[in-house]
Design brief:
3 strands; Sugar_transporter_CS; transmembrane; transport; Major facilitator superfamily (MFS) profile domain-containing protein
Length: about 500
């Protein structure tokens, strides 16, 4: 079996020894496609609503419900798919959501009535709730030293999705209408299904669930594709009592049927209750609660700012005149959405430059506080050009902060509850997405721009304080498998 004094390696040490190569690039491409799909389905909300309202003579409340049902669906999906991912594997955790998103997204284009459209968009939301599983899946393949930088690269696919959706809307809506836009926007999710069979399971997940032989096979594929060698010795997981050899000669002796499942108790985890309670245990309660606040704050600030950018000028003009402002043409509206999407690129560059050099906490808190600085001048009457610059800067900062929180969140949780923890935090962020249009944009609509700006500033400032209170900096730290390892490093 295993000789005394044999060298040992953790999953992170093995990944670091093999380096980031062709294998991880393929994983990045697949996970990034999923992130692009989610961004497109979310950004479509800002352009489809008005078109559907005009086509079916909907009330403003009905139009707003198109956005609300999607976020309500993602709230449910984010929690559910996190539990599925932790109990049944990362691959199942993103297969089922992709299937739901692709099917419901395509069927949305054929909706015969508003009720059908609401139902299909709700189902799209449930599918979109599994997007965070792809982030955790990719994270578990990346070596620790440059994990932050590559996660920023992964987040770039979100911005790519927003730009693609804005481009599609600008091209398709004036010519073919909203049904074609819905159908074409479902293509990335369909591609996820077509290439699903090529995706590997996370070796960290396999090892933490007693399937060391399967984990070895994946690690050997990584080494072969990257042109490196798997370091000899034993693979060590925090929650395994019997480490298994990962050298080629002995890995064939391991049989999944003979390996015990250290998380067997999780199989009795009805509805994810024990996983949820673990998130509120003594060691995890503080980061979990702070994480919920920061996720809510980032989502409230990000989605609110996206809507605020299009509402601000029209709202200010309406409030400064007694007559109603005539609506802009659709072409101008789609062009504005397209241009505004590029504000996220500087945020990604800032994140990439800072996340693995000055740390997650300092980078994230600084961006949230600078976001407040950009927004505060908007309480005064300013020229339109200056307002555009301030909103552009604010969106850059909130995109950077949102990017880093999606890096930090999976790093702070152990493998056994990583997807559940990130899933619930992501679900809380969806609440922010539901609330922000009703509260913040509603204030602008009713000529209370100052109150709307102060609300955004307050939410972002509180989020920045909570980031400072996070108990640990995860830059360069290995991912942990067990709750007992959380206080190390």
């Amino acid at each position: 079996m295993m000789g005394d004094g044999a060298p040992s390696n953790t999953i992170d040490e093995a990944l670091t020894a093999m380096g980031f190569g062709k294998f991880q690039l393929l994983v990045l491409t697949y996970a990034g496609l999923g992130w692009t799909a989610e961004a497109m389905e979310v950004m479509i909300l800002s352009v489809v609503g008005p078109a559907v309202q005009s086509a079916w003579s909907l009330s403003p409340q009905q139009e707003n419900s198109l956005t609300s049902v999607v976020f309500a669906g993602t709230l449910i999906g984010a929690y559910a798919w996190g539990i599925v991912s932790d109990k049944h594997g990362r691959r199942k955790g993103f297969l089922i959501p992709s299937l739901i998103t692709a099917t419901a997204g395509l069927l949305s284009a054929f909706s015969p009535s508003f009720i059908f459209l609401i139902f299909f968009r709700f189902m799209v939301g449930i599918g979109l709730g599994g997007g965070h599983v792809l982030a955790s899946w990719f994270l578990e393949f990346v070596p620790a030293p440059n994990r932050g930088t590559w996660m920023v690269v992964f987040s770039t696919f979100w911005t790519l999705g927003t730009i693609m959706e804005a481009s599609l809307a600008w091209l398709i809506m004036p010519r073919l209408g909203w049904r074609w836009l819905l159908a074409l926007s479902s293509l990335p999710s369909i591609l996820l299904l077509l290439f699903y069979s090529m995706t590997p399971e996370s070796p960290r997940y396999l090892c933490s669930n007693g399937r060391s032989a399967d984990a070895v096979i994946i690690l050997e594929k990584i080494a072969k594709m990257n042109g490196t060698t798997l370091p000899p010795g034993i693979i060590i997981s925090d929650i395994q009592t019997d480490p298994q050899r990962i050298d080629t000669e002995e890995s064939s002796l391991l049989s999944p049927e003979n390996e015990g499942g250290p998380t067997k108790a999780m199989n009795n985890d009805f509805g994810g209750i024990s996983s949820f309670l673990m998130l509120l245990s003594a060691k995890l309660a503080r980061p979990t609660l702070l994480l919920w606040i920061v996720f809510f704050g980032n989502a409230f600030s990000y989605y609110g700012l996206v809507l605020l950018t299009s509402e601000w000028n029209s709202g200010r003009s309406k409030c400064n005149s007694d007559s109603l402002q005539s609506e802009k043409t659709n072409d101008v509206s789609y062009r504005d959405v397209f241009v505004a999407s590029f504000a996220e690129l500087p945020g990604l560059l800032l994140s990439a430059a800072a996340v693995d050099k000055i740390g997650r906490k300092i980078s994230m808190s600084a961006m949230l506080f600078v976001y407040c600085i950009f927004l505060l001048p908007l309480v005064f009457h300013l020229p339109e050009g200056l307002i555009t610059v301030l909103l552009f800067g604010a969106r850059t900062c909130i995109m950077g902060s949102f990017t880093i929180i999606y890096i930090y969140a999976p790093e702070i949780y152990p493998t056994s509850v990583r997807s559940t923890g990130v899933g619930i935090a992501s679900a809380v962020s969806r609440i922010g997405g539901i609330v922000c249009p009703l509260v913040a944009v509603g204030l602008v609509h009713y000529c209370q721009q100052t109150e709307a700006v102060l609300l955004f500033v307050m939410v972002a400032f509180v989020s920045g304080i909570c980031v400072i209170l996070f108990p640990v900096e995860t830059m360069g730290r290995e991912l942990v498998d067990n709750e007992s390892e959380l206080n190390k490093n």
